Amino acid sequence: MSEKVTHTVRLEPVGVELEVEEGEWVLDAAFRQGIALPHGCREGRCSSCKCVVLEGDAEVNGHSTFALPDYERDSGHVLLCRTQAFSDLTVELLNYDEGLLRRSIAVKDFEGVLLGITTLTHDIRLLDVQLSQPMKFWAGQYVELTVPDADVTRSYSMASTQATPDRLQFIIRKYPDGRFSSLLDGSLQPGTEVKIKGPFGSCFRREERTGPMILVGGGSGMSPLWSILNDHILSKEQRPIRFFYGARTRKDLFFLEEFERIAQQLQDFEFIPVLSHATEACGWSGETGFVHTAVERILTAQKLEGEMDAYTCGPPPMIDAVLPVLQRVGVALENTHVDKFTQASATPVELAH
After folding, report:
1. Full-model pTM
2. Distance CA 341, CA 41 (A)
3. What is the SS3 assignment for the chain?
């Protein structure tokens, strides 16, 4: 058996080096060695891991031209999640977070079994998984969840925290034709074997921050935000928090009693659900319209003091609308953390985590 050919990839300007096997995606190699680089979809669709190859022979393929246009590719830009090395490389990181690099966790494989599925709304389920061994992760990260018997893998954000490192929870939205989510009310039963790979994601809670924390989500985007919020509570830290959640109608809301209890625990907390399709029949007296509109109006009026951190998680249209709003209300780009739920490659209607 021939030995695997490996190359050294040097990441500038941080001076970090990693070993990459030929045929391996550079980003996967970084994960394997516990080097946390900025990333999003990991499928060449979002451009979060875009960099420039300064020296060496590399090839990028299998990506969206929206994430990496041809003119950028021709100038040496690559997506690390879709880049293979054919020599030693020197790569310039266009986006990097030294704090993220310091908190790197090596990606590992875990065995687990399904404990149960709880119905939260007509189309959202809470998945409960018991791992064979604890997994270290930061609140807000995600994993690859595989059901071997169904031969399906999807990325889902965890709703749980390190308080239960061997028991993970996931808030998952059902899609009628989704290969994974269509199993939630069918073949997935307690005792079903699952495999977990992770953790992934850079949209996790930054600790020991005193300024306001802004959480904005929609649909199953509640999952990582719920983890971040509960991790904050466990930390005993106190800071102003505004949690905006976009839904269509009142029947799409859940955890309302839990949010009431949280409001009693924290000194300055508001949960602000926003319904885009509220009707007179549902008797809704709260915020209506699009969530990004409510975010801008309420935060502009409240004029919260201190350096804000924002975490926004959910479908791409919501994220695209929220990001410019966050900038306008004073959230710095370096303090804006995003988890955009891109479409799963095999099934266009099902969102990955």
Report:
1. 0.82
2. 8
3. CCCCCEEEEEEECCCEEEEEECCCEHHHHHHHCCCCCCCCCCCCCCCCCEEEEEECCEEECCCCCCCCCHHHHHCCEEEHHHEEECCCEEEEECCCCHHHHHCCCCCEEEEEEEEEEEECCCCEEEEEEEECCCCCCCCCCEEEEEEHHHCEEEEEEECCCCCCCCEEEEEEECCCCCCCHHHCCCCCCCCCEEEEEEEECCCCCCCCCCCCEEEEEEHHHHHHHHHHHHHHHHHCCCCCEEEEEEECCHHHCCCHHHHHHHHHHCCCEEEEEEECCCCHHHCCCCEECCHHHHHHHHHHHHCCCCCCEEEEEECHHHHHHHHHHHHHCCCCHHHEEEEECCECCCCCCCECC
Can you give the pLDDT at residue 352? 55
Two structure tokens written together for 221? 């985007």
Distance (Å, rounded) from C-alpha 215 to C-alpha 271? 9
Strand 213-218 vs strand 152-157: parallel, antiparallel, or unpaired? unpaired
Between 325 and 36, where is the model more confident? Answer: 325
